[in-house]
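Checklist before submission:
- one chain only
- standard amino acids only
- sequence pasted in full

Submission:
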Amino acid sequence: MAFPAGGGGGGSDVAGVLQMDALLAVVNAGPAPITLRAVTGQGPGVVLRDTGQSRLVRPGGVGWIDVKLRLECATAFGSEPLPVRLSVETADRRTREVTYPVAVRDSVWHRGAEVPCEHLG
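Returned file contents:
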């Protein structure tokens, strides 16, 4: 499971587009530790990518991974969840790809982008 855990502010180099540093929380519901190797996501008006840091998450634990968001203010907060792809290495050194839907609308990311997006209008 994954969900927005923090973020806000940011800047812009294109009208109507906000670039924001954020956190994504990932819950390890499995019985063994995992290492998050990569996180990416792309949907209408949203692009998400990790910052290149791996994160070990113990069984039943939560790991926070730094991500970069690129939000098109006019379309980023639709009702559809963002499909986020997680590359996870398990204890047996196997890498698995998992896609999880992350709700962006009404999330901490949405609230953190509201004021900056108003100024980018």
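Reviewer check: The longest strand covers residues 17-27.
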